[in-house]
Structure formats: structure tokens, C-alpha cells
Amino acid sequence: MSGEGGLRAALASDRVVVTAEIGPPRDADPEVITRKAAALRGWVDAANVTDNQGANVRMSSLAGSVLVRRAGVDAVMQLTCRDRNRIALQSDLIGAAALGVRNVLLLTGDHPALGDHPDAKPVFDLDGVQLVWTARTLRDEGKLLSGKALATRPSWLIGSVENPFAPPAALRARRLAKKVAAGAEFVQTQYVFDVDAFAQWVRRLREEGVTERCAVIAGVGPIRSLRMLSFLTGEVPGVHVPPELERRLRGVPAHRVEAEGLAACVETIQTLVEIPGVRGVHLMVFGHDDEVPDIVRRAGISRKGDSDVD
Amino acid sequence: MAIEPTPKPYRPRIPARLAYPLHAVLATNRVYRWLAAFVERQPRLYRWFTAGERITKERLFGCRMCGQCALPATGYACPMTCPKQLRNGPCGGVSADGSCEVDRTLRCVWLTAWDRAESASRGADLDLLQRPVDHRQWTRSSWLNYWQGRDEGLAITFSDADPYPPMRVR
User: Residues of the signal sequence (chain A) (predicted)?
Assistant: First the structure.
């Protein structure tokens, strides 16, 4: 499970990078992840494994990442500040490196109040920026936050997230600049539906010199139904669906909404990858992993069609 | 004072244009440094001093006595009243109307911080990298800590000349 390929090699190349998201199961069945990863193999450069997404208990992202790698796909282990203090965070980061996880995506995480255990203690010992900073300190300085030295340093690629659409708009590019100073080498964004607003954010990043230090990977995904549309516009924090897209989806018969949503998603990808400073797309297809090849093919993003992990 | 697990965003009770000059009055100097060292040597005096600080800052800023005050770098809106206690800016869950993802009836404290800092031309303060909180300092006096130079390195800048500043570890 060593060898070339994966996210690091893809980012070093000049082609469009594609990542996708795998949500681990709520049970102990490893097959679910293996099956999802197999569907993505050869079509993505890496797959993110979420960390108890939405503050709902799932198989750990570390276990999930190892399973994804075994299935032949480079894993991006997500790790949030919600459930672990700095001791556990550093421990899991080191453990991930030892188990061959080559990419980590570090974020603050949703508040437990929004998940299936609202009675849980929210930890937030570090924030997302501090976690990125901690990871860079472990890797580049070879030190824990205690100052103790690591004999063997981890070598993962460090990523983070940003929501370009959440207020205050003027601060969002600078906030990513701060994460990049802390150590983020790539960033995956919240769902992009409003391409114009996104392009403005990327333009600000270029002005601040952020895109030279950090690869911007735009989050995309199809809206499959009018129910999903109302969910995204009403309940998911920080997602903005522009009125034109909403009209387009509401303007077709019910049985055509899914196809229209997919078509819109493909068009969005094609527009996004032409924006200077955008390195790739992060596909969020929630449970429809078998659709990833189709989306990638229709968007005209060239793939090798073979495995990226040997 | 309550160290509740999920704090609520607090709206400061004094305008930013008053808070900045107030800080100038409290800015560290030799006299304050001497005074802080003196107060720390007397346990009873330390308790009175800390109680005074708590009462004042609780009313004005919703202070929770983390002991390492970030207020001067956040437009005097306390980031420890963010439900996630974020020290480095707002999370991605702020909704379009500026409300907090945990309590939609309250405004994100980081939006308040941004507006107040900007109104005083101090927006660049929010670009500072804030290092992790030392949780041993809860209930301690942040003023006495500050006057004795313990806050040095709490927040650091980055620039094109120093794009990846190291975190100060023990």
C-alpha cells in the first residue's frame, strides 16, 4: 500500500483533482466502506472519510480511512475538535500516520446540539485553526504541544475546510489565509451552487496570494429532489442555492428533477474548473457513490481510469 | 461564575469606541507589573482583585474567566462565549442572517467582533493566529496574567516574510 499516486501526486500534477466523500456506517460492518471505496476506485484521487458527520455517531474516521486504503483508494481522514481534547487529537494524528493515512482534513466540527447525542459534552479544546497548526507542528517541527519531540515524524498532507458563503463575506478569504499560515495545504469547500459568489471568493484568495500556497478544491454535488432542495436551503447552515437554480429545478416535472439536478451539477463542475485558482472538485453524492464515474465522465474531467493507490 | 459546557454568544455592553481607550488605561507598564506581582503574593487580595475583575467583565463582556483574555484582538466581543469557544474566527455554520448555528435567536459573536473591530479600523486583529488556551488558567485573573507578561505569544502575526510562524510550545 505504498507507491505513487493519491492526492499529493494529483495536486503536484496539472490535471483537475477529484475527491469524494465516504460516510462511514453506523455499525461495525467493514463491507459498506469497502464497497463504497471500490465504486470510487480509479475515478477519484482520494476519498474523504468523515468524522461522525453532523455530530452523529458512526464508525471512526481512522478505522474508515484504513478500510478505504485497503480497498485501493487514497484516504483523507477527517478529524474534528468536537469530541477530542489536544491529547486525543495528537494521538489520533500520530496513529493515522502509523497506519499509512497520507492525508488529514482538520476542522472544528458541528456542535453536538445538532446531532444524535445532544446530551454529549462538547469538547472544542482546540479550534480548527489551532488543530491545523498543531498538525504542522507535529510534522514540521517534530514536536507535540508539550514540547516533547517525535523520533519519527508524520508526513501527511494537511487540509482544511472553508465555507465561502457564510458571513462575514469580507472575512472568509482572510480566514482561509489564516488557516494556510497555520499549515493547510489544501482546502475543500462547502457546497458551491452560487458560482459567481464562489468566483469572487477565489479572486480574493488569489489577491492575497493564498492560492499559491493552498490548493482550492470546490465542493459540489447534485440536488436530487425538491425535498433535498428545501433541506439545503432551509436546514444546512451556510449553503446558498441561487434563485435561478431553484427555478430551474422547480420548473421541471417531479420525475425529471433528479436528472436536471445532475445536469446542473455537471455544468457547475465545468464552470468551476475553469476559474483560475481552482485545483479541483470535491464530490458530495451521499450514498450514490456509483454515480461518481458518470459525473466525472460527463464533466469531461480526464481520468486514468485505473487505481491511484497501487 | 458558570463554566457551562455550551456558552451563548454575548453582546458586549459597552461600545467598541469606549473599550479600546479603556484598554489603553490598563496597558501593561512597570507599575502594573509590580502591583500584579504584589497582589499574587497575597491570597486574600488576589481573591478580591479577581472577584472585582470578574464582576466587571462579566457584566460588560459576558466574561467566563478563562484567564487569558482575547478581547483586545476581537473588538471586545468575547470569543469564549461562542458555543464552540473558537479563538480564531467564525465557523462555517453562521447562517445568512448572521445567526449562530447552535442558537438561531442569537447573533454569531464573531460577526459582532468583526463589526466592532472594523468600526475601530482594527479588522486586522482578527488575522492574528491565536494559540490554544491554557485550561489551567480558568478562574485566574487575566489582568494579573497580562501585566506579568504571561500573554506574550498568545496571538502572533503572519506575513509574506514569515508565512508559517511556529507555534510556541513548552
Answer: none
- The secondary structure of residue A27, as a DSSP letter, is S
The answer to whether the CB atoms of A113 and B127 lie below 8 A apart is no
Q: Which three three-digit cell numbers place residue B43?
A: 491570597
A6-299 has which fold? Answer: TIM Barrel (3.20.20)
Whether B163 is covered by a domain: the verdict is no
Q: How many domains does chain B have?
A: 1
Chain segment A164-192, per-residue pLDDT in tens:
999 998 899 999 999 999 999 999 999 99
Identity of the residue numbered A128 = G
Q: What is the ipTM of this complex?
A: 0.96
Per-residue pLDDT of A230-258, as tens digits, reads 999 887 777 889 999 999 999 999 999 99
CB-nearest to B111 from A121, A129, A167 is A167
Interfacial B residues in 136-155 facing A (CB < 8 Å): none
Q: Which of A125, A133, A237 minimises the CB distance to B129?
A: A133
Q: For chain A, which residues make up each domain, given as ranges?
A: 6-299
The range of the structural domain enclosing residue B71 comes to 16-126+135-149
Q: How far is A209 from chain B (nearest CA, A)?
A: 9
CA distance A30 to chain B (A): 31
Contact status of B93 with chain A (Cβ, < 8 Å) = yes
